[in-house]
Specification:
Belongs to the CDP-alcohol phosphatidyltransferase class-I family. By secondary structure, the chain is mainly α. It has a single domain, classed as Four Helix Bundle (Hemerythrin (Met), subunit A). It is about 80% helix and about 0% strand. The protein contains six helices and no strands. Helix 1 runs parallel beside helix 3. It is globular, with a radius of gyration of 17 Å.
């Protein structure tokens, strides 16, 4: 149940308040590097889980929860500091909250959940890139963020179709 990949995921939960404290203290670029550290632990825990064959149900639940929780913290920090418009924050929050609630709901009903796919990972990388552009005040950063938001919703629809297909096949095989 508890292994190195799951402990790395747990570390990401501890990086969330650290990010928020550093951001709130006005060290926004340092906070971004804490976010990058969280992203690196995400990559590392996934790599180790696959390499060591330590993929667990607990890790499959906690990993996306840690990712979404960090992203929600980032969204809130950016919107309250007026670095992104509230409409973008609302769209990002609704998408991430929907993914968290939907995954938990179906998991506890005994349904198979869809593991992260290439589109989901690409969306995460694009969000990090958009946040980098915003924090370092690049031109058109907000336009890039909106493009990533659209891609994230498309990715969510892909997950929904995969979920339906996975659970339809499972019920047919039962």
């Amino acid at each position: 149940m508890w292994n190195l990949p799951n402990l790395l995921t747990l570390c990401r939960f501890f990086l969330i308040p650290m990010y928020l404290l550093v951001f709130e203290a006005g060290y926004i670029k340092t906070a971004f590097f804490i976010l990058l550290l969280a992203g690196l632990t995400d990559v590392l825990d996934g790599y180790l889980a696959r390499k060591r064959r330590q993929i667990t149900q607990l890790g499959s639940m906690l990993d996306p929860l840690a990712d979404k929780s960090m992203m929600i913290a980032v969204i809130l920090s950016l919107v309250f500091s007026k670095m992104i418009p509230w409409e973008a924050a609302a769209a990002m929050f609704l998408r991430d909250a929907g993914m968290i609630v939907g995954s938990a709901f179906f998991h506890f009903r005994g349904k198979q959940t869809v593991p992260a796919n290439v589109m989901g990972k690409l969306t995460t990388v694009l969000y990090y890139l958009a946040i980098l552009l915003i924090i370092f005040e690049f031109p058109y950063a907000i336009a890039c963020l909106w493009i990533v938001i659209i891609i994230s919703f498309l990715t969510s629809f892909i997950y929904i179709f995969q979920f339906k297909s996975l659970n339809k096949n499972e019920s047919e095989n039962s």
